[in-house]
């Protein structure tokens, strides 16, 4: 039994005997902390891995996109006149810039009319859909990484001749009932026929192309009076977006670059930090709530243990154990339970992170310090959870304890 001069080693052995002697209770208390720490470690590991995946996808897609549009100059020396416009050869002007991989222009055409697949108008039929009609340069499809699912996209030859050809987005093709182009289908925009030469899908930028009909700009100029592009899209090499966004206005309007507004995503490091901070904060809160629930469970079990061991506490007090000895034993017991739960929870959290990464085909990104620090966190949680039950045990008087003992 503990005495006034009990040593720390003896205190630990007594605490170990106390928790091992009740294996079912040991399992329940350890499981509470283990689940909490496993959730905390796993959520932090999954958050780090997810942040890395979001960042890598940003680098591959969003970080390589630059959009340029004309804007009114705010310079006090600007001369009033016609509104600024993109040059017709905007895509060719920027292709020579360092870091530019592809460029293309796009312009919505307004008032073209409804779209149908048959030349006959049936008044009793469902009204023909009005789909977005877009005048685009041939380079736009490569710029937006469009995937051709049927046929082909138009090229410079179609554009130079002003051929009456169109490329459908997958959603537009579905609405028109067109799923193949080997039979050279045609559509009518208003009363004008156009030959469908291709269908595109899986567009990672400008998803409105999926719902619309794209035709060469020269075709739009011949039929609808198109004159200037409204937007220039640029695909750059990773890391070159900011530089291209700075140089593109100068290449497009050397005498008035302020009339061109180039937008580029923030640097990858900035986005990575923001994404990781937001995701980490969310998962830390979820893990902390689970860990708090485990700590409350440990406190309840330890308090129940104190009530069941009143006779033992009274006997030890009668044999000379001090309040400090009694409180120390219960705190040590809860600390050992916390350490055991930390070891199990840290290992389980690591395995959960690896399993989730494998299931999602992600590259796992894990800080080993999380798993290594789990036992220490478990000890702290166990000690905090056992503080109140230990205080209750230390306050029990020997005579009252022996009288109420079974």
Order of H and E elements: HHEHEEEHEHEHEEEHEHEHHHHH
End-to-end C-alpha gap:
20 Å
Q: Radius of gyration in whole Å, from Cα?
A: 36 Å
Count of structural domains: 2
Query: Assembly type of the shown chains?
Result: single chain
Biggest β-sheet strands, sense, barrel: 11 strands, mixed
Calculate the mean pLDDT score and round it.
79
Percentage of residues in DSSP E strands: 5-15%
Number of strands: 11
Helix % is: 40-55%
Task: Name the structural class.
Answer: alpha+beta
In short:
The protein is 53% helix and 15% strand. By secondary structure, the chain is α+β, with helices and mostly antiparallel strands.
List its traits:
alpha+beta, 53% helix, single chain, 11 strands, 13 helices, disordered N terminus, 406 residues, eleven-stranded mixed beta sheet
Would you write up a description of this structure?
The chain has 406 residues and is α+β, with helices and mostly antiparallel strands. The protein folds into two domains: 8-58 and 270-404, no CATH class; 85-252, no CATH class. 53% of the residues lie in helices and 15% in strands. It has helices at 8-20, 23-60, 90-95, 140-143, 156-161, 170-176, 217-224, 241-252, 268-308, 310-318, 323-359, 368-394, 398-404, and strands at residues 65-70, 100-109, 115-116, 133-136, 147-151, 165-169, 186-189, 192-201, 213-216, 231-236, 260-263. Strands 1, 2, 3, 4, 5, 6, 7, 8, 9, 10 and 11 form an eleven-stranded mixed β-sheet that branches. A hairpin with a 2-residue loop joins strand 7 and strand 8. Helix 1 packs across helix 11, helix 2 packs across helix 11 (323-359) and helix 11 runs antiparallel to helix 12. The protein is elongated, with a radius of gyration of 36 Å. Mean pLDDT is 79; it is low at 1-5.
């Amino acid at each position: 039994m503990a005495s006034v001069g009990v040593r720390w080693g003896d205190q630990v052995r007594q605490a170990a005997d106390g928790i091992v002697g009740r294996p079912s209770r040991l399992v329940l208390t350890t499981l509470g902390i283990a689940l909490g720490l496993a959730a905390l470690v796993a959520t932090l590991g999954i958050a780090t891995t997810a942040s890395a995946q979001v960042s890598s996808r940003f680098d591959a897609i969003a970080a390589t996109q630059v959009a340029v549009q004309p804007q009114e100059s705010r310079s006090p020396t600007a001369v009033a006149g016609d509104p600024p416009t993109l040059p017709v050869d905007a895509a060719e002007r920027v292709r020579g810039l360092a870091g530019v991989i592809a460029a293309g222009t796009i312009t919505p055409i307004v008032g073209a009319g409804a779209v149908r697949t048959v030349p006959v108008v049936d008044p009793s039929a469902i009204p023909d859909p009005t789909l977005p009609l877009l005048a685009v340069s041939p380079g736009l499809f490569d710029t937006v990484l469009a995937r051709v699912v049927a046929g082909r996209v138009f090229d410079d030859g179609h554009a130079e001749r002003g051929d009456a050809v169109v490329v459908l987005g997958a959603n537009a093709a579905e609405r028109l009932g067109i799923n193949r182009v080997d039979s050279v289908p045609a559509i009518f925009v208003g009363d004008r026929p156009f030959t469908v030469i291709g269908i595109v899908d899986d567009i990672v930028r400008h998803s409105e192309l999926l719902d619309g009909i794209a035709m060469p700009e020269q075709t739009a100029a011949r039929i609808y009076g198109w004159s200037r592009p409204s937007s220039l899209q640029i695909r750059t090499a990773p890391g070159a977006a900011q530089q291209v966004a700075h140089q593109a206005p100068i290449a497009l309007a050397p005498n008035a670059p302020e009339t061109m507004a180039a937008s580029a995503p923030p640097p990858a490091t900035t986005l990575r930090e923001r994404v990781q901070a937001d995701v980490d904060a969310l998962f830390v809160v979820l893990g902390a709530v689970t860990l708090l629930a485990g700590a409350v469970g440990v406190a309840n079990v330890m308090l129940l243990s104190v009530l069941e061991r009143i006779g033992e506490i009274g006997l030890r007090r009668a044999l000379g154990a001090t309040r400090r000895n009694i409180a120390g034993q219960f705190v040590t017991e809860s600390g050992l339970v916390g350490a055991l739960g930390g070891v199990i929870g840290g290992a389980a959290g690591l395995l959960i992170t690896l399993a989730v990464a494998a299931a999602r085909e992600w590259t796992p990104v894990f800080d080993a310090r999380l798993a290594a620090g789990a036992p220490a966190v478990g000890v702290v949680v166990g000690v905090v959870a056992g503080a109140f039950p230990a205080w209750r045990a230390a306050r029990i008087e020997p005579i009252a304890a022996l009288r109420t003992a079974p």
